[in-house]
Each structure stands twice: as C-alpha cells, then as structure tokens.
UniProtKB/TrEMBL annotation:
This is Eukaryotic translation initiation factor 5B. The chain holds residues 546 to 905 of 1095 of the full protein. It is found in: Cytoplasm. Belongs to the TRAFAC class translation factor GTPase superfamily. Classic translation factor GTPase family. IF-2 subfamily. Residues 14-230 form the Tr-type G domain. It comes from the Eukaryota.
Length: 360
C-alpha cells in the first residue's frame, strides 16, 4: 500500500466499491438497475433475460443528490459506485460466478411476494463461499395489496403513510422471509432496526417501479463499504483488471470490455492478455467508457479517457485482441517487469476458465 500522510489524504484516494446484483430470475434485478439509472435495459433484452455481464458507474454526486432526503449531511468519501449486472438465466451460471467474484458487496434481490427461491439459495451459496458482504433488496413492495405510491421516497417515510392492512401484510411477509434466511443459517433484519450490523445482514424494502427504498439502498451500499472496507478500497498502484467480454465494436475492431478493480490504466499502456493461441501483448489504443449511469453493454457514444482510475467498466481498443479470452486477467507491463514472466502468468488463468466452462 502507498503511504499516506493523513487520514483525509487516504479518504481522497479511496477507489469506488464494486457491487453486483444477484438473485432469482424475475425478482427485478434489471428493473432495479434500470430505475437507478433511469434507463430501460429490461425491455430491450430478449425475453427480459440479461445475456451478458454489464457494468454501470454511478458518480458519487448522483448518489448524494438521490439520498439527500434520507440524510442530507451524509459524508460520502468514495468517488462513486460501480454496479455489475450478471445474467439471471440458468445457462449462465459461469458468468454469474465470474461477475460475483469481482464485487466488494452484493445486492441480493428477493421478491417480497415469493420469498427465497432456488436461485436465491444458489446466490447465497456463492456469497457464503466467497465470504462476500451483501444487502437484501426486498423488492416489489408496491405489490402489497393497497400500497400507496410515494416515488423515490425513503422506505420508513413511505411505510408510515401506508394503511394498517398494508403494514400488517408487509410484517407478515417480512417475518416469513427472515425465517427462510434463518433456515439458511443467516440472520437478517430491516436495516433501520439492525443493531448488530456485521453479524446480521441488512434488508432494504424496495420498489423498482416507483422507487420507494432506493435512496436507502444506495446510501447503505456506499456507507457500509466505505466504513467496513476502508483498507480494501484504499487504492494501491497494483493493477487488478478482468476481461468480461471480447467483441467487435463498430469502428473500433475487436475490443475487450474489462472491469478495472484496482489501480489506474493509461492510454498507451503496454498490456498482456490471455489469448486462445498464447499470450497477447499489445498497446492500449483507446480507453472508452459509456457516459456515467449508462450501461457498458448498450450501444451508445463513448467517452475517451487518457487515464482511468478504479473501479470502472471500460472498453479497451487495441490491436490483436481477436483471440482474447473472457474471464481472464489483464496485466500492464511496468518498467521493471519481465515480459516473459507476465506472459506466463497471464496464461495460467486459461486453465481455471476452461475448467469453469467444462463444469457449466
Ligand atoms: P430479473 O429477471 O431479476 O432481471 O427481473 P426483471 O427486472 O426483468 O423483472 C421481472 C418482472 O418483474 C418485470 O415484469 C418487471 O417489470 C417486474 N418488476 C420488477 N421489479 C418490480 C417492482 O418493484 N414492482 C413491481 N410491481 N414489478 C416489478
């Protein structure tokens, strides 16, 4: 780690936390992200199935703006939040595992009308195995019979204004779901009643249609990660970067979509990537990102950057990327690095990717 002279200097150097969205199909994972972004990826997808991993960057100014009704003076130190969206469909379990492996914290989406479902349990098993923190978004609260809509409102305020019947139904369903988590060996509680954060996982009731609870979810994600993952989020210079997709982009040739987890990438950096016919050594021609709050997967105009700090979803253009392999690490060649050693390390990823493909 770099040496910082003061705590505030360290705070300024925090990287953005990475968050992924997991849960059973149809619980509203895509809709939640769409609501937060103000976009409509859900309706664009064939049958609503997310087929690739996506990445969206939310600048902290945007999060501050959206959470000020909940807590106007919240001290947010990270530069933003990078949200990774993994495919829900059964046949993409290798992509789900790849996406969730990158995140610092996960949102586990549960449909309040259905409780824990098969893929919720599968997600929980992945999270437990990796020891990943998570927050439960108890979604679709607007479907409680008689729910009155209060758009974008903090959940406690919205709940107070509901009828006794709605509040009762909510409490019954919540209690049932807390029991279901208990049966999986996990303690959970509404985040605003949770006195044992760290041991007891937080539940945030949300609606991805009308936005109740969304300010709560955003604020909790940022505050929790910056408080409990300070060391992990203190940027070091070490590059940690994973290739998500290899694809042809109009006007750019073959490009790679990557998630930069740690460190800084520059235009002109010499990189080493795992390739089907051996290590690929090339130079970054352009570093492209979608506009903030836009999806890396969705076609649009890109912003060009001279350098980019983690965490970000980035499209890299360079020569010779045709046979790059998704799911592997990207390395940057530094002045003291042995290129041959790096070529060897980069190819070690190939075996683990191949074994995952065999299993899925
Ligand atoms: P995913 O498979 O988890 O990504 O689920 P989607 O985002 O595709 O949502 C599945 C369905 O549930 C869609 O018809 C959504 O419009 C609907 N949906 C998602 N979130 C909510 C919500 O909060 N309230 C209501 N009423 N419907 C929702």
């Amino acid at each position: 780690l770099q040496k910082y002279s003061s705590a505030s200097e360290r705070e300024r150097n925090l990287r953005s936390p990475i968050c992924c969205i997991m849960g059973h199909v149809d619980t509203g994972k895509t809709k939640l992200l769409d609501f937060i972004r103000g976009t409509n990826v859900q309706e664009c997808e064939a049958g609503g199935i997310t087929q690739q991993i996506g990445a969206t960057y939310f600048p902290i100014e945007n999060i501050q703006q959206r959470t000020k009704e909940l807590k106007a003076d919240a001290k947010l130190n990270v530069p933003g939040l990078l949200v990774i969206d993994t495919p829900g469909h059964e046949s993409f379990s290798n992509l789900r595992s790849r996406g969730s492996g990158l995140c610092d914290i996960a949102i586990l989406v549960v449909d309040i009308m259905h409780g824990l479902e098969r893929q919720t349990i599968e997600s929980l098993d992945l999270l437990k195995m990796r020891n990943t923190e998570f927050v439960v978004a108890l979604n679709k609260v607007d479907r409680l019979y008689g729910w009155k809509t209060f758009r974008n409102t903090p959940i406690v305020k919205a709940m107070k204004q509901q009828s006794k019947d709605v509040q009762n139904e909510f409490n019954i369903r919540l209690t049932q779901i807390i029991t279901e988590f208990k049966n999986q060996g996990l303690n959970t509680e509404l985040y605003y009643k949770n006195k044992d954060m760290g041991e007891t996982f937080n539940i945030v009731p949300t609606s991805a249609i009308s936005g109740e609870g969304i300010p709560d979810l955003l604020l909790l994600l940022v505050q929790w990660t910056q408080k409990t993952m300070f060391e992990k989020l203190t940027s070091s210079n070490e590059i940690q970067c994973t290739v998500l997709e290899v694809k042809v982009a109009e006007g750019h040739g073959t490009t790679i979509d990557v998630v930069l987890v740690n460190g800084i990438l520059h235009e002109g950096d010499q990189i080493v990537v795992c390739g089907m016919q051996g290590a690929i050594v090339t130079t970054i021609r352009a570093l492209l990102t979608p506009h903030p709050m836009k999806e890396l997967r969705v076609k649009g105009t890109y912003l060009h950057h001279k350098e980019i700090k983690a965490a970000q979803g980035i499209k890299i253009t360079a020569q010779g990327l045709e046979h790059a392999i998704a799911g592997t690490s990207l390395y940057v060649v530094g002045p003291n690095d042995e290129l041959e050693d790096m070529k060897e390390s980069v190819m070690e990823d190939m075996r683990s990717v191949m074994s995952r493909i065999d299993k899925s």
